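Re: the 129-residue chain
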Amino acid sequence: MKPKNSSSELKALVVDDDRVNRMTHEALLKKVGVENLASVENGKKAVDLYCNGESFDLILMDKDMPVMNGIEATKQLRSMGIGDMIVGVSSSSRGAENVQQFMEAGLDEYYTKPLTVDTLKAILRKIKS
């Protein structure tokens, strides 16, 4: 992935079945300077975007969603050769085993909701380096 010079050049995808969470993550991303945003409500729609030629620098992927969960979507994206940063986010605290399963699907990082501005800034620094 080619380094980006500023957050405004980055393209982010928010994948979450909860509309409020999608809006919250979009607002946080805008707050840290990411203006090029898309959001979908399940993993299948995220995979479909990539199948249709879209690409993103960052994907914020919820774990528990209907139609296709974040674990399966992450596995499919990685099997397609997608190397973009996928950050798992979940409000679920169902134990380390579930987090490990999500990480093993191909996540770059995992965080518990809610994300913070500082967390997003740290993620963006990794993408830009």
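The radius of gyration is 13 Å.
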